[in-house]
């Protein structure tokens, strides 16, 4: 597949249960992510379709994001996993996937969170550039999931919690319909963001690993 051609053709849409198997394979070849069960991806793609999205071109799955609204903080969208096919990375698909699931929440979503290992430069950069696109800041919380919380004998990096926000969606929602029809997401800068002062912009904090 020619990358430039793929970039032009890629559609972002809601996931369906038919995507589950391909998502499992995508996460497997992504390399750096914890691979969950095939059943887990089926369930996410089906029952969490309103907060999950896939990127596809020519019937090939090129990207996936799974997210959910935190039950304890409904104004916060927690991004669980995001992956782009190694052949189509660096083309903006990761950012488009994040925009898609955030836009669907409309004004109710004020924050996006994710835990990202310090060594994952691509992912840290993705959330940083996403915060910029939203016209807001990125903070790294003191907590998150440190390596000590994982089972004994399992080597796992710390998972610091990144928090992007606050932001407010101001425009009309533009996203894929529930039927799985494909529709491109409107660029965020047209619909998101808050006016911030120079001082607020300078307060933006990012993880040292970015
Ligand atoms: C993280 C990932 C989803 C990013 O997807 P992507 O489509 O390549 O990202 P984008 O093209 O939208 O790029 C977003 C930003 O990250 C930057 N970026 C992308 N890959 C990068 C890399 N390897 N190193 C540094 N920065 C990188 C881009 O330059 C862009 O920043 P900019 O807008 O300031 O130029 C992808 O690298 C991936 O699938 N990695 C493996 C799975 C993974 O680690 N997921 C995250 C777990 S939390």
UniProtKB/TrEMBL annotation:
Coiled coil: none annotated. InterPro entries: Acyl_CoA_acyltransferase, Ectoine_EctA, GNAT_dom. It comes from the Bacteria. Keywords: Acyltransferase, Transferase. GO terms for biological process: ectoine biosynthetic process. Residues 172-210 are annotated as: Disordered. Its EC number is 2.3.1.178. Pathway: Amine and polyamine biosynthesis; ectoine biosynthesis; L-ectoine from L-aspartate 4-semialdehyde: step 2/3. PROSITE patterns: GNAT. Residues 10-157 form the N-acetyltransferase domain. Residues 183-203 have a biased composition (Basic and acidic residues). SUPFAM superfamilies: Acyl-CoA N-acyltransferases (Nat). One of its GO terms (molecular function) is diaminobutyrate acetyltransferase activity. Belongs to the acetyltransferase family. EctA subfamily. This is L-2,4-diaminobutyric acid acetyltransferase. It comes from Paenibacillus sambharensis.
